[in-house]
Design a protein that fits this description.
By secondary structure, the chain is mainly alpha-helical. The protein folds into 2 domains: about 60 residues, Arc Repressor Mutant, subunit A; about 150 residues, Tetracycline Repressor, domain 2. About 80% of the residues lie in helices and about 0% in strands. Helix 1 packs across helix 6, helix 4 runs parallel beside helix 7 and helix 5 packs parallel to helix 8. The longest helix has about 35 residues. The chain is elongated and about 70 Å long.
Length: about 210
């Protein structure tokens, strides 16, 4: 192996270790922020939990604010990974949509502490124009809008602005996530997902009532 190759290998290993350490810090920070709140979480407490020096944390994140926002961003990255894994290999558009909805609800049902972080972000950082949740939503929503366009072109759903579909469905999921968190007790993810899909796909009007309206 040449010296250049060895140097590249060392840089690659160093980069991997940095990513691993960063993820380790963020995972612990997410738990502490959710448990104690932003104001009452001290970076010294985080350092003790990880058994590292406080300076190590600041080498990765220059401030507590930067650490918190990175933790909120990680929530959304993990959610995206969960949804992507759930729809992998599914070709039917409606089945993909159903799997994505179940993955979304299941993700936050399994990790209520992540919902707490999103709530804290809105409370603590009102100076931000867009919360992390909506930044990620705007980035990822285009693929779903393309899916709806393909269904409209195929005549499988009504012709309407795809933005209208994503806004209504997105708001339903966003509201369900917070309702579940605040109430504590909730139906199964499967039931909630099926209820949302049933109302979205079939509406609430009977066939007779729809014909009367038309």
């Amino acid at each position: 192996m040449t010296q250049t190759a060895r140097g590249a290998q060392r840089r690659s290993v160093s980069a991997q270790r940095r990513v691993q350490r960063e993820e380790q810090i963020l995972e612990a920070a997410m738990q502490l922020f959710a448990e104690h709140g932003y104001s009452d979480t001290d970076t010294q407490l985080l350092a003790e939990k990880l058994q590292i020096g406080k300076g190590t944390i600041y080498r990765y994140f220059p401030s507590k604010r930067a650490l918190f926002l990175a933790a909120a961003d990680r929530v959304m990255r993990l959610m995206r990974q969960s949804i992507d894994a759930s729809i992998q290999g599914i070709t039917d558009p409606f089945e993909r949509l159903g799997a994505a909805i179940r993955a979304f609800l299941g993700f936050f049902a399994e990790h209520p502490e992540y919902v707490e972080l999103l709530i804290q972000e809105r409370a603590q950082f009102k100076d931000r124009k867009k919360p992390t949740y909506f930044v990620h939503r705007e980035t990822n929503i285009k693929r779903w809008q393309e899916l709806y366009r393909s269904l409209i072109e195929a005549g499988r759903i009504r012709n309407m602005p795809v933005e209208r579909i994503t806004d209504v469905l997105g708001s339903a999921l966003y509201g369900t996530m917070f309702t579940n968190y605040f109430l504590g007790e909730r139906p199964s993810v499967e039931k909630q997902a099926n209820d949302i899909l049933d109302v979205v796909f079939y509406g609430i009007l009977s066939d007779a009532e729809r014909k009367k309206g038309s």
